Amino acid sequence: MDILRDADLKPFNTFGITAKAEALARFRDVDQLRTLLAAPELAGMPRMILGGGSNVLFTRDWPGAMLLNEVPGLDVVREDDDHVWLKAGAGVVWHDLVMHTVAHGWGGLENMSLIPGKVGAAPMQNIGAYGVELKDTFDVLEALKVDDGTVVTFRKDDCRFGYRESYFKREGRDRFVILNVTFCLSKHPVLNTSYGNIAQELAKRGITAPTLRDVSDAVIAIRSSKLPDPRVLGNAGSFFKNPVVPAAVADRIRAHHPDVSAYPAGEGQVKLAAGWLIEKAGWKGFREDGYGVHKDQALVLVNHGGATGRNIFDLSTRILRSVHERFGVDLEREVNII
Asked: Is the pTM above the cut of 0.70?
């Protein structure tokens, strides 16, 4: 396997940030990964696993080995009359996986169409969109334990999924490398069109009895209208998590802003739309030099060209402070900061 030295990371992050890694290598299976982890020329170096680079912001060079997870594969491992269990390699592009399931009529992932990134990062974030989260169809995953090279199977409870959270972002961080994820998908799907603007988009298209493809196409259209293509404008999608606050906090905000975007989150909690908070704090469309906030979606920070990771990180800090001062709500970054 080739190991590149002083490697440029700009092609491997969707922000398009210039940064370097002391070393860079790729792996496509567990044996190649084990070889890299044991490689003498990488001994003693910090290691980082990178998938699609769609949820990371480099604020500095990486003083170690960057290992690109390119494990392939889409394989049916089991099925019955009602469900199919599909195993996807960690290096598979997430949207390609979704399109594969839609084409076969297997329901469960269609609301997460066009989410950037690869399969391996999906359980780390417990990605979700339009009323659906990865955990809803998750069955198991296999991951390599870094310290001894064994492959461990994780079931749903083991992953400790939360809102954009999992065991792999907390206690398991840097201890495991995800190799594949198996999903349990429905052969007789019940479509979820009640969240966001899906129903409105379907109505606009004159669709009254939608298929999986119709829902996926609607989601793609909605996302494309709101979120910039990172191939055109550097970004990492949603930069901040939607905050979950006590109902009393949401009521206080609603008293002054009846149009607040808020959704019940159970147990006396309410989820607020971070994009709404940021927009009301005056940041939507903000631009400074080569970076700023997207003109159509305040949740997205963008690199117009030539920005550094530190520029974008510092902007995010200003936004955090502004939202706290205006609404008394603490936002949390969703993007991983390096």
From this structure: yes
For the chain, helix (H) and strand (E) counts, in that order, are: 9, 20
Split into its structural domains, the chain has a count of 3
Q: What is the pLDDT of residues 201-237, one digit of tens each?
A: 999 999 999 999 999 999 999 988 888 889 899 999 8
Q: How far apart are CA 93 and CA 331, in angstroms?
A: 29
Residue that terminates a domain, selected from 30, 48, 69: 69
User: Which of 40, 69, 98 marks a domain boundary?
Assistant: 69
Containing domain of residue 107, as a range? 74-186
Active site residue 334: yes
Task: Please report the beta strands in 112-258, taking only residues with DSSP state E, as ranges in sequence order.
Answer: 128-129, 132-133, 138-145, 151-155, 176-186, 234-235, 244-246
- Do 89 and 170 sit in the same domain of this protein? yes
Residue 10, pLDDT score: 96
What pLDDT, in 10s, does the model give residues 282-314? 999 999 989 999 999 999 999 999 999 999 999
Q: Annotated catalytic, 164?
A: yes
Q: Copy the structure tokens of residue 68.
A: 């690109």
Report how far apart, in Å, the C-alpha atoms of 219 and of each of 23, 56, 224, 299, 337 are: 38, 24, 8, 18, 28
Distance CA 73, CA 211 (A): 26
SS3 state of residue 83: strand
Side chain identity, residue 210: P
- CATH of residue 301's domain is 3.90.78.10
Rounded distance between C-alpha atoms, residue 216 and residue 198, angstroms? 9
Q: Find the catalytic residue in 164, 201, 223, 316.
A: 164
Catalytic residue, from 54, 216, 238, 316: name it. 238
Q: Are residues 312 and 283 in the same domain?
A: yes
CB atoms within 10 A of CB 232: 7
pLDDT confidence of 266, banded at 50, 70, 90? confident
161 near 125, Cβ under 8 Å? no
